[in-house]
Amino acid sequence: MVWKVRCGYSKRFSPEMIRPGIGLREMGCLPPDTEETAPFTEQELTAAVSDGDHWLTDNQYGFRQGTGTDNALHDVLETIGAATDKYVMGVFLDISGAFDNVWWPEILCALRRMQCPRNLFLLVTSYFADRKGVMVKKTSMVEKVLTKGCPQGSVLGPLFWNILFDSFLCLPMPDGCRALAASHRAKLLRVQRAALLAVTKAYRTVSTDALQVIPGIAPMDLRVIEVGKLALTRVNGQVEPQHRRVAWEKVMEDWHERWSASEKGRVAFTIFPCVRERLKLDFVLGHQSEQFLSGHGNFKAKLYEMGLVDDPQCDDCLVPHTMAHILHDCVCIEDLREILKWKLSLLGLDFDLAVIKAADSDAKALLSEFARKAMRRLSVGNRARDERLAADPLQPDSDPETV
């Protein structure tokens, strides 16, 4: 079955949401992964438009297996190097809201031009037909007929975009001109963000800046620039080690500057203010510890900011329920805090966040362990069990998650 109605629920619903482009923006998209036929169809469609006389142009480097922005950058450098003129001009176009405005009727026209097999064409036609988006809040509802849009995380979205944009890449160009397409920085970071969410098990409200620093994974756009610079230093297809070191140092410098200047992920910044030092640390994050380190999780103060709870205060202490409160003051995890203090004392460290963040991996691993146990206890499903364990807090932890 292919779903035809996509519903959304909002605590902040208002009549203004029915205006074009506001509120219902995401409702104009196909469901990300609910279609049972999507993976099969994606493979079949890819084969259909990548083989024969009407396949996708090779100038499309975005969202295709075996190619990426680094390949597009290398193509640009080769084109510049082969030019006989003194100057080479580049015109860069950024299509705002590209995926959100993929018009489905034009995709069907493009598939006809590509001579898509009839069975697949009919399946895609049915896939687009009679779709609706519904926004609901209590007794209020807005319904919209959908004719465009593919979310970034959908199975077929990238392929549909390539099919739609291929007609532009095939336009006749003057001599010496070429048109290339690739994912730009924002799209690169969106793709990386999806992977980082899976790696860190973080909530989707965590900023991309924090998602990169917490597990210690460099921004993808900076790595692409690194690859492009290294391509210029190749001699007989090889890159000298010193050039790799210089390129990596530039990545670290730009990453640290970006992290320091960012207005997001400031809770994580208090623990990891330096990306170089973060990369030196060796400990594994889990879901609970990531909540603590990012400040996005089962904190009532954060949930209150998002309009998901009516009270920001800690149930036990009647003060704002934040990461800092849990670390320093919350009475319901006082036993865990005392254990953390004791373990830090064995390392010759005081119980202070500034001291912990300046220390080595052992201290931060203890903080991560404390965060995991504290967040697990504060969760509704585990609190009753952990209150029983609080009578003997030194007993072995049976949680399979490791730190």
TrEMBL record:
Residues 32-170 form the Reverse transcriptase domain. It holds the Pfam family RVT_1. It comes from the Eukaryota. This is Reverse transcriptase domain-containing protein. It comes from Dryococelus australis.
